[in-house]
Specification:
413 residues; Protein Transport Mog1p, Chain A; 10 helices; 29% helix; elongated; disordered N terminus; autocatalytic cleavage; GPI-anchor; RGM_N
């Protein structure tokens, strides 16, 4: 299970400890025939502690390890002089996907669960388009959220997005910048920062590295470029997390798969600030795009009314927008409806692709295949409302009328 974060320190005693444990794991107290191998591992352990002595002077774990080595040397009649070959490393089970067999178990989230423990529950959050947010609780919202906003903020990583207007003076915004901070974690990874902006989707962290740094489990954090300049994937195995970042047209999309335990790993959840993937967008930042869609379909408007949302450069009618979105999104769920909304408000066909790729990421990252499609507005409903069939459920007539009245009132202001 995941432990609390340890303060970043140049002292590498945890690396020495894990190497010694790897070399001797699974063995009972050594008998006479095993003593030479055990003594070799002890000497390697002592050599490792000497290398990090200068940076570990004030570390209690370091001093404990040094005294422990001396005691074990005496107990097993080990000479301080002799071979110090590299420690024997634990072999992983056949078919294991971990790339480095010397990475500590704590650096592989799923392996840190005992065999009798329940499989961890995974959740998904995504942000795409103008922008549309799917939270960890499967609430689907369309938001304004102009400027910088936190998507994720827990004990292990922070994710912040910056949204800018798609058109001058418009409340239609899209993600133009993304910053991800992976916090230093035990012997697994150093702190790493990933930044992406419009027309710049790097396949490396800000320091030029592609993994978690110099720590023993560095490869438990890794960046892979899927399509140059368009699609990267970050695997953070030590927290069981997968992040997908894309550039579609000028703007960025974000998708993550994360264990519930990591999602909820915050110091004080009740007093925590806004965290969009967990709490959703504030009500005053949400847009009821389904009401707008209904009005477009009914009245045949080709441009969005109101001074805050100017006409799009390319005029889509409701009919042409739905036809275009149906090319990539044949099921008329909220991803389809958000595609139509974005084409009507921006006139940019790249927003259709953003919705398409967002749903493709959901298919890969969401652990509950029955909740891939969402059909109902979830701002005022319980999270995770999904219709059982491939078509959206009809809203009651009274509710539809109220939505229409609400939209008409808003545009008259």
């Amino acid at each position: 299970m995941i432990c609390h974060l340890r303060m970043t320190s140049p002292c590498k005693i945890l690396k020495c400890n894990s190497e010694f444990l790897a070399a001797t794991s699974g063995s009972h107290p050594p008998g006479t025939e095993e003593a030479p191998e055990f003594c070799t591992a002890l000497r390697a352990y002592a050599h490792c502690t000497r290398r990090t002595a200068r940076t570990c002077r004030g570390d209690l774990a370091y001093h404990s390890a040094v005294h422990g080595i001396d005691d074990l040397m005496v107990q097993h009649n080990c000479s301080k002089d002799g071979p110090t070959s590299q420690p024997r490393l634990r072999t992983l089970p056949p078919g294991d996907s971990q790339e480095r067999s010397d990475s500590p178990e704590i650096c592989h989230y799923e392996k840190s669960f005992h065999k009798h423990s329940a499989t961890p529950n995974y959740t998904h959050c995504g942000l795409f388009g103008d922008p549309h947010l799917r939270t960890f609780t499967d609430s689907f919202q369309t938001c304004k959220v102009q400027g910088a906003w936190p998507l994720i903020d827990n004990n292990y990583l922070n994710v912040q997005v910056t949204n800018t207007p798609v058109l001058p003076g418009s409340t239609a915004t899209a993600t133009s910048k993304l910053t991800i901070i992976f916090k230093s974690f035990q012997e697994c990874v150093d702190q790493k920062v990933y930044q992406a902006e419009m027309d710049e989707l790097p396949a490396a962290f800000a320091d030029g590295s592609k993994n978690g740094g110099d720590k023993h489990g560095a490869n438990s954090l890794k960046i892979t470029e899927k399509v140059s300049g368009q699609h990267i994937e970050i695997q953070a195995k030590y927290i069981g997390t997968t992040i997908v970042v894309r550039q579609v047209g000028r703007y960025l999309t974000f998708a993550v798969r994360m264990p519930e335990e990591v999602v909820n790993a915050v110091e004080d959840r009740d007093n925590q600030g806004l965290y969009l993937c967990l709490r959703g967008c504030p009500l005053n930042q949400q847009i009821d795009f389904q009401t707008f869609r209904s009005a477009q379909a009914t009245e045949g408007r080709t441009r969005r009314k109101g001074p805050s949302l100017p006409a799009s450069p390319e005029a889509f009618t409701y009919e042409t927008a739905t036809a275009k979105c149906r090319e990539k999104l044949p099921v008329e769920d909220l991803y389809f409806q958000s595609c139509v909304f974005d084409l009507l408000t921006t006139g940019d066909v790249n927003f259709m692709l953003a919705a398409y790729y967002a749903f493709e990421d959901v298919k890969v990252l969401h652990s509950n295949k029955d909740k891939l499609h969402l059909y109902e507005r979830t701002r005022d409903l319980a999270p995770g409302n999904a219709a059982p069939s491939g078509r959206p459920r009809a809203l009651p007539a009274l509710w539809a009328a109220l939505l229409c009245l609400s939209w008409c009132w808003s545009v008259s202001l």
